[in-house]
Amino acid sequence: MVSTLPTAHAKRSKVEDLKEKSHYLREPVLSELQLDTTHFSENAVQILKFHGSYQQDNRDNRVKGQEKDYQMMLRTRSPGGFIPPELYLTLDRLADTYGNGTLRATTRQGFQIHGILKKNLKATIAAIVHSMGSTLGACGDLNRNVMAPPAPYKNRPEYQYALEYANRIADLLTPQTGAYYEIWLDGEKAISGEEHPEVVAARQRNINQTNLNHREEPIYGEQYMPRKFKVAVTVPGDNSVDVYTQDLSLIVITNAAGELEGFNILAGGGLGRTHNKEETFVRAADPLGYVDKDDVYDLVKAIVATQRDYGDRTQRRHARMKYLVNDWGVAKFRQTVEQYFGKAIAPYRTLPEFQYEDFLGWHEQGDGQLFLGISVENGRVKDEGAFRLKSALKTLVETYALPILLTPHQNILFYDIRPELRPKIDRILRDAGIQPVESIDTLVRYSMACPALPTCGLAVTESERAIPGVLTRIRALLTRLDLKDEHFVVRMTGCPNGCARPYMAELGFVGITPETYQVWLGGSPSQTRLARVYIEKLPIVELEQRLEPLLVFFRESRLQGESAEHSGPESFGDFCDRVGFEALEDYAATYTPAKPGAKQRLRYRVNLRPDVFNRLKETAHLKGKTLAEIASEAIDAYIQRAQG
Ligand code: SRM
Ligand code: SF4
After folding, report:
1. ∠ CA 113-117-120 to the nearest 5 degrees?
2. Residue 230 annotated as catalytic
3. Residue at a domain's end among 311, 336, 354
């Protein structure tokens, strides 16, 4: 049995009191919604989040001494990124009627509408629910949108299982309070999809206190979770969901006949941190073990119960499950989970390496039909001049009733497309100024940026609005350095919370002060390794100056064979990780940029044994020379001696 809970007697954070007093997420939202005001109180804002909405203000419109330009952001709950055609058309309409005219595909496979006035919030949520959508639990201290690879392969059962279980786990952990329907639909019950009977039974099953004694919220109780909780389900080898960044990841394991056996489990990942507060940090999830399919719900509940009961409810900065796993260590965390689970967790099974898939462009989906992944720069679905993405997507859904899967990289995928429609769809997209994936700059294709200014209240600098310019500059630099076709994963955020997962990127920019970013390097192209801080503060005007030496070093010294994770020459992220930051710094310190117009000196590559390389590095450092100078002198001397 589980022993006394650690945070029961310590002083709880204010949000804990608000949750407890909210009467299962009803107040003060319900009362304040009736008031003719432009915004909610601070207390109501905390509870509003559980309903899928954040109160924001347009920061471009701030004027000293005047009331802020308050507006609400709404986020969908869409497990695995599934958006049925009817819901898409509703969201498209709501964005125009009540929002700022754009939709935004998120990094967790949801849609956001920004710019909704408080007085229109109820109509907007009601319209979403009436179109089979929901925003319940898209934000707040509970299980967030459950991710799954977006590929709709009909002939690969593991993909079907991943999507199916993403839905079932989302259902299992959906808040049960009636508050949502009372507030936004005047009590009318939603016409949502049926829950699987296994899920209904699993929710009620109370093994070793995984459930609390609360009729309205059997799993969460009246205080919900200590903090947000994030789950992804994926298949072996597919890291489209950024599997190491989640509180909990499940990896589908099938037998030789393609039947579901169970899941590998990873736990304790998370990216949020605060600058200059070392007690906050990014963390990659650890393998916890394997669970048979029949026990999966009980294990998920056991992990949720462990975080629910032992997660820190006194300091929100320390409340994510990653801190519990880190403070206890994996062994103690596993032991506690096993107490709730009622049995031992089996060992983690060996898996193939993960790869990063974005599924853009046209693909066979395995049943004669096609799917099409469309790149959406930073997830922003909009019309702007000759670029009419929003109109084109609407036309496609209206004309062909195509269902959508949002990807974890802010892109949109249409599926169940009859092959004969392909030319017509291509024409609609071309006429709307949308480039086919083959023509998109690969830096842009693999990049992500969070919204930041003007909507995000936590942004310290630009992100979505800054990244196009930054990528253009990096492309120009690469071209100038004879690396024209090179690309790597670039991600940017306007603060350290990590919403576009920059800490897994090969080149991550994390806003630290206006127009200044921390630079993180060394993540892998498949997002399987955490990056590390290389530059504490980079004024973005100095981008080329600081990046050029690294790229030249990379060009000169990358491995040409297979890299650790990818076929072909070593990637920038793998290179930075292999040579180490000291070597990068050393190289940058002695680097002299080639004079503009100067003829580029031809350079050759040789591979050295690691011990020789280390001695070479030390000697270069001692002598104040570059590695190339010392190596050339030494080899020249050797050859002269050898030749007599
Ligand atoms: Fe996030 C807070 C946007 C994915 C970590 N995030 C916010 C808020 C709501 C700002 C706020 O609290 O006032 C941002 C709204 C901005 C706006 O104007 O829309 C915001 N987060 C986003 C989205 C829209 C970014 C995007 O480019 O798509 C993503 C919505 C996903 C969804 O559909 O649910 C989004 N946020 C993430 C991720 C990535 C992920 O989940 O895979 C992370 C890092 C992973 C993690 O959670 O560890 C992330 N967001 C945060 C945090 C830091 C959490 C922490 O543990 O410290 C905050 C701040 C907070 O919770 O206090 C935050
Ligand atoms: Fe806002 Fe920071 Fe998240 Fe960007 S990373 S959306 S600036 S909270």
Report:
1. 90
2. yes
3. 354
* pLDDT tens track for 176-204: 999 999 999 998 776 566 899 999 999 99
Quick check: is 44 in a domain?
A: no
Ligand 2, closest atom to CA 459? Answer: 7
Residue found under tokens 């006394």: 4
pLDDT tens across 489-544, in order? 999 999 999 999 999 999 999 999 999 999 999 999 999 999 999 999 999 999 99
**Pocket (CB within 6 angstroms of ligand 2):** 450-452, 456, 458-459, 463, 493-495, 497-499
Inform me whether the pLDDT recorded for 284 exceeds 80.
Answer: yes
Q: Do 146 and 9 have their domain in common?
A: yes
- Give the pLDDT band (50/70/90) at residue 3: very low
Q: Say if pTM beats, i.e. exceeds, 0.70.
A: yes
| Residue 599: inside a domain | no
301 catalytically annotated: no
* Residues 415, 556 within the same domain: no
Residues whose CB is less than 8 angstroms from the CB of residue 451 and which lie 6 or more positions away in sequence, other chains included: 104, 112, 114, 378, 459, 463, 464, 494, 499
Residues 6+ apart with CB under 8 A from 292: 261, 262, 346
Q: pLDDT tens across 48-101, in order?
A: 999 999 999 999 999 999 999 999 999 999 999 999 999 999 999 999 999 999
Q: Show the ligand 1 pocket: residues with CB < 6 angstroms.
A: 54, 56, 73, 75, 106-108, 110, 112, 138, 144-145, 230, 242, 245, 270-272, 320, 379, 410, 450-451, 455-458, 497-501
For residue 482, give both structure tokens: 């004879």
Atom of ligand 2 nearest to the CA of 457: 1
- 499 included as an active-site residue: yes
Is the same domain home to 486 and 564?
Answer: yes
Domain span including residue 81: 53-135+358-439
Q: Are residues 145 and 293 in the same domain?
A: yes
- How far is the C-alpha of 342 from the C-alpha of 210, rounded, in Å? 10
226 and 182, same structural domain?
yes
Q: Are residues 3 and 146 in the same domain?
A: yes
Residue 555 pLDDT grade (very low, low, confident, very high; cuts 50, 70, 90)? very high
In Å, how far are 26, 54, 164, 187 from 178, measured between CA atoms?
9, 20, 25, 8
Are 362 and 406 part of one and the same domain?
yes
| Number of domains the chain is built from | 4
